[in-house]
TrEMBL record:
<dbReference type="InterPro" id="IPR051014">
    <property type="entry name" value="Cation_Transport_ATPase_IB"/>
</dbReference>
<feature type="transmembrane region" description="Helical">
    <location>
        <begin position="304"/>
        <end position="325"/>
    </location>
</feature>
<feature type="transmembrane region" description="Helical">
    <location>
        <begin position="627"/>
        <end position="646"/>
    </location>
</feature>
<dbReference type="GO" id="GO:0046872">
    <property type="term" value="F:metal ion binding"/>
</dbReference>
<keyword id="KW-1278">Translocase</keyword>
<keyword id="KW-0547">Nucleotide-binding</keyword>
<feature type="transmembrane region" description="Helical">
    <location>
        <begin position="272"/>
        <end position="292"/>
    </location>
</feature>
<feature type="domain" description="P-type ATPase A">
    <location>
        <begin position="154"/>
        <end position="253"/>
    </location>
</feature>
<keyword id="KW-1133">Transmembrane helix</keyword>
<dbReference type="InterPro" id="IPR023299">
    <property type="entry name" value="ATPase_P-typ_cyto_dom_N"/>
</dbReference>
<dbReference type="InterPro" id="IPR023298">
    <property type="entry name" value="ATPase_P-typ_TM_dom_sf"/>
</dbReference>
<dbReference type="InterPro" id="IPR001757">
    <property type="entry name" value="P_typ_ATPase"/>
</dbReference>
<keyword id="KW-0067">ATP-binding</keyword>
<feature type="transmembrane region" description="Helical">
    <location>
        <begin position="601"/>
        <end position="621"/>
    </location>
</feature>
<dbReference type="GO" id="GO:0016887">
    <property type="term" value="F:ATP hydrolysis activity"/>
</dbReference>
<dbReference type="Pfam" id="PF00702">
    <property type="entry name" value="Hydrolase"/>
</dbReference>
<keyword id="KW-0472">Membrane</keyword>
Length: 653
């Protein structure tokens, strides 16, 4: 699981602690939510339910053979599959010095019920608990493991030049100074200097930079960068453990250790409630000896055990996980995955949202945004797209897509001018397409305002004369502005954008969308520093939203980490606490609304459960409530709580 703050994954405060990648559960219990999809996980509850129903039918018809030890044995068979983990947990916590837990309370209550001959109630209490665990486990079906995910992203092999040929070996075995080869579509397994003349890399995994980066001979290539075209060679400059991707891994580990620790209300309350109930039951058994004439130990023991059965948090065991389960279900219906019920709680407190730019608020896909030609636009685009069709660069592809394949002209003598652009002959004309440096190299003048453009520009010259330019930009998502407005509407008072993209582009996007604050040209460690600065402000509860490997450290450091799931990297998705499955930033505000509605319903259920329990406990202590009345009250409350929890599924967000 991801190394976040304390998780309260089980119902009734069945706590799991995950502060480090290989942490064991607090109590080493057998309830493994990661295996919730396995039939073996459901088998104990299914077996218990079937045996209990059969026993109830036999009891109803008062079958003569179903008496005495057979009846007791049958109910024990129904009890053990669901009760054994709880009883085992009670002993484990006692051994560790934590005596008064809900596990001890449930164990005593149900064993007490057996002692009183109330077998069905004893089985039902444990069965309800087990079902509650399964509901929670089904909602969080797969444990998070961001450390493993990061390791999986790194290439398993490196193609190194040895013994006069290229061979594939483990990257850990490559020495500094050796030459490695990268084919198109492969990620660099190690940091190194480019030996080839030039190459184009997708660096988004490390920097978040939206534009592919052209690197020339002798310049640095970082592990994790994706080679976009051709076969290239690198000279290794750092060992495997010192690579850029390894540093990000360390950042995740360090950031995770700083996660805020939170516990659900019921866990905190149980620390007070459980010992009070236990000692009240003991007092109810023994104190009447000093005040009641004709004291009968068995009578008062019966009342004390009834008291324990009544006080057993059966309704809470169902109502709380079902409330959160309903919220998780409602969120899923809206394209949002919460990885734990505690994040539904915590997201209600978020007052600051920090967002990545590329892939989060913008599409992460290049589009032609502006066309300025000195010749008719159709002719201008035709020339530009024709020459760019000879390149596999994503910007070139965006231009060709804008023009359309049927608008291309015949082209000859294509030449690449490294780091500048392309030259070719079209319809007998000498055509140049590239950046401003290309035109300056050929002594071709163009307007100064072109260099002042925020977006990436591609210029065109025909026969030595400037013919115009296009701007290429990463478009904002259709609901990006709506997302910012919605966040302000739900009470988020600070929205910050952090990006690896250049500052001018970041600031323009922020201004267009109404983001309160923006910072660009940031590496992963810079994002961590910015987030730590924000978190240091008083009363800040921060949600970070991102989609790249470079976002993993800040996702882990934030109070609530949110990842874009459709286009986001596996690492971001694994590290995050909440995943927006359809990549719509407007769902951030929706997630907050769902969290608030869920918390309201859960608190209603808690109030209902404790209110009814308080009344029945008083009646039980006075001998006015029997075991059946106690269980009926508890089941009735549970039923109302279920109806209330299901209500969230029909809400519109």
């Amino acid at each position: 699981m991801a190394p976040h703050q304390h998780h309260t994954d089980g119902c009734c405060g069945h706590q799991h602690q995950h502060e480090k990648p290989n942490d064991r559960h607090d109590h080493d219990h057998d309830h493994n939510h990661g295996d919730a999809s396995s039939f073996k996980t459901y088998l104990p509850a299914i077996a218990s339910l079937v045996l209990l129903l059969i026993a109830i039918v036999f009891d109803h018809f008062s079958l003569s053979f179903f008496q005495g030890y057979l009846r007791l044995g049958w109910y024990l068979l129904a009890y053990i599959p669901v009760a054994w983990p709880v009883v085992k947990e009670a002993f484990a916590t006692i051994a560790k010095g934590d005596i008064f837990t809900e596990f001890l309370l449930m164990a005593l209550a149900t064993i007490g019920a057996f002692a009183l001959g109330e077998y069905p109630e004893a089985v039902a209490v444990m069965l309800f608990y087990s079902i509650g665990e399964l509901f929670q486990g089904a909602a969080v079906s797969r444990a998070k493991n961001n450390i493993k995910a990061l390791l999986d992203v790194r290439p398993d092999t490196a193609t190194v030049y040895r013994y006069g040929k290229y061979i594939s070996i483990n990257p850990k075995e490559v020495a500094v100074g050796e030459i490695i080869q990268l084919k198109a579509g492969e990620k660099a397994p190690l940091d190194g200097e480019l030996e080839s003349e030039s190459a184009s890399f997708n660096t988004a995994a490390l920097t978040g930079e939206s534009k592919p980066k052209t690197i020339r001979k002798g310049e640095q290539v970082l592990a994790g960068m994706l080679n976009l075209e051709g076969v290239i060679t690198l000279k290794v400059t750092k060992k495997f453990e010192d690579s850029a991707l390894s540093r990000i891994l360390d950042l995740v580990q360090n950031a995770s250790a700083k996660k805020a620790k939170t516990e659900l209300l019921i866990r905190r309350f149980a620390k007070i409630y459980t010992p009070i109930v236990f000692f009240l039951a003991v007092a109810l058994t023994l104190l009447p000896y000093f005040f009641v004439a004709n004291y009968d130990f068995n009578v008062w023991l019966y009342r004390a055990l009834v008291f324990l059965v009544i006080s057993c948090p059966c309704a809470l065991v169902i109502s709380i996980p079902l409330g959160y389960f309903g919220g998780i279900g409602a969120a899923s219906a809206n394209g949002i995955l919460f990885k734990g019920s505690n994040y539904l709680d915590l997201i209600t407190k978020v007052n600051t949202v920090v967002l990545d730019k590329t892939g989060t608020l913008t599409q992460g896909v290049f589009k032609v945004k502006e066309v300025q030609g000195e010749i008719p636009e159709k002719e201008f685009i035709s020339y530009l797209a024709s020459i760019e069709s000879q390149s596999t660069h994503p910007i070139a592809k965006a231009i060709v897509e804008y023009s359309g394949a049927d608008n291309l002209l015949k082209i000859r003598n294509v030449r690449e001018i490294a780091g500048h652009g392309l030259a070719a002959e079209i319809n007998g004309n000498e055509v140049l397409a590239g950046n401003g440096k290309l035109l300056k190299q050929f002594g071709i003048a163009y307007p100064n305002e072109v260099d002042e453009k925020v977006e990436t520009t591609v210029l065109l010259a025909i026969d030595g004369k400037y013919a115009g330019f296009v701007t290429i930009a990463d478009e904002a998502k259709t609901d990006a502005q709506q997302a910012i407005t919605a966040l302000h509407a739900v009470g988020v008072n600070k929205i910050v954008m952090l990006s690896g993209d250049k500052t001018s582009i970041t600031q323009k996007v922020a201004t267009d969308l109404g983001v309160d604050e923006a910072h660009g040209d940031l590496l992963p460690e810079d994002k961590v520093a910015q987030l730590e600065k924000i978190k240091a402000e008083p009363n800040r509860v921060v949600a970070f939203v991102g989609d790249g490997i470079n976002d993993a450290p800040v996702l882990a450091l934030s109070d609530v980490g949110m990842a874009m799931g459709a286009l986001g990297s596996d690492v971001a998705i694994e590290t995050a606490d909440v995943v927006i499955q359809n990549d719509m930033p407007s769902k951030i505000a929706t997630a907050i609304k769902i969290g608030r509605a869920t918390k309201k319903i859960v608190y209603q259920n808690i109030g209902l459960a404790f209110g009814v329990k308080a009344v029945v406990l008083i009646l039980g202590a006075g001998g006015l409530a029997t075991m059946w009345e106690a269980v009926f009250a508890d089941v009735g409350v549970a039923f109302l709580a279920i109806l209330n929890a299901v209500r969230i599924q029909r809400m519109k967000f």
